[in-house]
Amino acid sequence: MFMYFLRGSLPWQGLKADTLKERYAKIGETKQSTPIEILCEGYPEEFATYVRYVRRLDFFETPDYEYLRNLFIKLFEREGHKNDGIYDWTEKQQQ
Fold first, then answer.
1. N or C: which end of the chain has fewer CB within 10 A?
2. Helix/strand/coil for 2
3. What total of structural domains would you count in the chain?
4. Does residue 24 form part of some domain?
């Protein structure tokens, strides 16, 4: 989902087929055959690490949320950002 938000589209979007069943089969094949490195190309390695991790999970397996959070916290810090609680959508305080 987050790769869709970042990229704006996914390789399996817009695939055509004669029937819905065939279309879903094509989507499944494309999802399985698209290398994670291609899906996450142009983004920090943490995104590919995240996708590889969640793809390996069993359906009922609980993810290691701490591990996943730390992936992005470390990326955030490495990129020089500070967690000051101020976001793009936070109203600026008048000084």
1. C
2. helix
3. 1
4. yes
Give ∠ CA 85-71-66 in degrees, rounded to 5.
85
Burial class (CB in 10 A: 0-12, 13-18, 19+), 11: middle
Q: How far is CA 71 from the centre of its chain?
A: 12
What pTM was computed for the model? 0.78
Which ranges in the chain belong to alpha helices (H)?
A: 2-7, 20-33, 36-39, 45-56, 65-78
Three-state DSSP state, 3: helix
Whether 25 is in a domain gets the answer yes
Q: Is residue 64, in this structure, part of any structural domain at all? A: yes
pLDDT in tens, 28-84: 999 899 999 999 999 999 999 999 999 999 999 999 999 999 999 999 999 999 888
Letter for the amino acid at 92?
A: K
With contact defined as beta carbons under 8 Å apart, do 51 and 39 qualify? Answer: yes
